[in-house]
Every structure is written in C-alpha cells, then in structure tokens.
Amino acid sequence: MYNGSPPSSLPTHYHAWRWQGSAEPLELALEQVPLQPPAAGEVLVRNAVIGLNPVDWKVLGGGLADWQPGHIPGVDGAGEVLAVGEGVPAEWLGHRVAYHTSLHGHGSFAEYAPVAARALLRLPDRLNFEVGASIPCPALTAWLAIEKVPVQPGQPLLVSGAGGAVGQYLVQLASSRGFAVSAMAHARHHGRLRALGAGECLAGPLADGHAWAGGRRFHALIDTVSGSHAERMAEALRANGHLICIQDRVPGWPCPPFGLTLSMHEVALGALHVLGDDTAWQHLTAAGERMLAEIAEGRLRAEACLVRGFDELAQLLEDLRHRNFSGKALVRIR
C-alpha cells in the first residue's frame, strides 16, 4: 500500500507497450512510463507473464473502447501483488495471481499493471505464471457461456468454432456437466477435441453464405464464430433449445414467435467490468479459481502455449491476428 511516490522496493518508472492510435499491432510502442499507486479498490501487480487474446488486436481499431494515444492495452496477465489501494486488504500483498482486467483502464501489456481487486484469481502453488496467464479470458468466457444452459445430462450440445482457446474449455466444461458434446472445427483440431471430451467432431465453421443442413438435433448451441454464423447455425436447434453467442450477437430472432421458442443468450466478459456488481464478480472469480485448481490437479487441460519475450509482444500480437501459429500466445517478462 502506498500513496504518492513508490516505495524504495518499487521503481519510479516501468516499461509498457502503448497504443499510438493505430489499428496495427506493429505500431504499438515500447516506452517508459511513471509508476502510479493503485487506486481505491485496486492492486498493483508485477507481471511475470502476459496472455494475448484476439480482443487485444481487435480493440486497436478503436471500435471497442474510447482510448487516447498512450493507453496501455492488454486484458490478461499473471504475477505478484506488490501494492494495494485504499479499501483492499493488505493480505493480498505477495499473493501470486492471475487476472482479467477492463479494456477501459490501463492493461496488462506492461511490467506492472493496476488491477481491480475483485478480479484477482489466486494461483495454486503448483501452477506457474505461464499457465496462469493463459487462463482468464478464454476460461472465464467459457464458464459464462456454459452457465447459460440449464444442466440436463445426456442432452446434445454443439460448440461451433471449437478449435480456439474458448472451445478448449467449453468442450471440457460441457462434458463434465454431462452433456453429449459435439464440436465443430477444422479437422486439424478434431483429435485434440475428442481427447477433451467431444463425442463427435464436425467440419466447420460454415462457409460464408452457407446454412446448416444437418437437421434440428441439438438442445444447445454455443457459437464462438460470429453473430451471422450463429444465426445460420440456429437451424441445428430443437424446440426449446438454447443459442449462446460469444462473438457478436444474432442480428435477428432466428424463429417466429410461438414456434420453436428458442432461448437466446449472449456472453460479454468485458462488460462485467462496467456493469457487473461485486456478487457477479465473486461468482466469476470463484469459478476461475476452481478451474485453476482443476488444472493443477490434472482434471482440466489448459491450452498448449507459445511463449515469447517482452520485446517481441507487438510481433506476437500481429502473428496472432493472422493466426500464424497454434496454441496460446504468451509473453514472458521475468
């Protein structure tokens, strides 16, 4: 806990990747910035590893957040709590944590990051910072999505666009809840998805303009591709089924009233930073810590990781944008 100048154990300045107003990841600039004390309700995390996510390059275009040049992007990271702001228990000091932070404040692309205390996830001793930083955005998003579906063991559930990081956790979470899981993804992912619990793998996603032609056979569909893709995939749902959209939302209700009576859901992890109350965050972080414990115990599998150095962050984000590799993109600071 400190106010004003950092204590002698902390530097007065640190290095951060800063947004210059461009949509291009390679236009991010690595600069030195003054270290500020954490605000009320926040902690200061010394990052060890940063997790990169698709939202990190998508937001650079300016449509998702109102940034000014000099903003520090990034939502996921893992490290050690070094200072706490007003109202945060001192017991957090020294804790190893992972976190997902808001797009609307300075983020994780830095040696140090301010993080809302309510968003912290305690890391089990057996998990390293690399695994910790790989978890928050995809795993918490997957949990929010599966929570939308009432548990009915044996009911068929389809994850479309299952080949990515969110799909990695969705397949496992749905399988552990007893659903009969099908996964739609490129064929190169099928072996991994079967190992994670998918009983059936389908080629996909659908090509632009193509509709689902496999009949109405799923109780629930969780789509990670786009609103348009989800709308076309709605043809796969039985009456009283559930359609959950993670990327965008369905532009129009995909069935007439008093017919199939589909339930529509959307998922927006980032919106909880603005609109979620403390109770919502308690539920979310409790779920996150359970998943971290399950990974430490070998009952949940994290995604394979690709790790680069801090000075390579912009290039790795560019590679992620163009899908030039497979696995979870991470940046190691220390």
Key structural traits:
15 strands, 334 residues, six-stranded parallel beta sheet, seven-stranded mixed beta sheet, alpha/beta, single chain
Approximate helicity band: 10-25%
Rough shape?
globular
Instruction: Give the averaged pLDDT, no decimals.
Output: 95
Number of strands: 15
CA(first)-CA(last) distance: 23 Å
- The fraction of residues in strands falls at 25-35%
Low-pLDDT residue spans: none
Q: Total helix count? A: 9
H-E order: EEEHEEEEHHEHEHEEHEEHHEHE
The major pleated sheet works out as: 7 strands, mixed
Class by alpha and beta content: alpha/beta
Radius of gyration, taken over Cα atoms and rounded to an integer in Å: 20 Å
Could you explain how this protein is built, in words?
44% of the residues are buried. It contains nine helices and 15 strands. Strands 3, 4, 5, 6, 7, 14 and 15 form a seven-stranded mixed beta sheet that branches. It has a six-stranded parallel beta sheet with strand order 10-9-8-11-12-13, sandwiched between helices. With 334 residues, the protein is an alpha/beta fold. The mean pLDDT is 95. α4 (165-176) links the parallel β8 (156-160) and β9 (180-185).
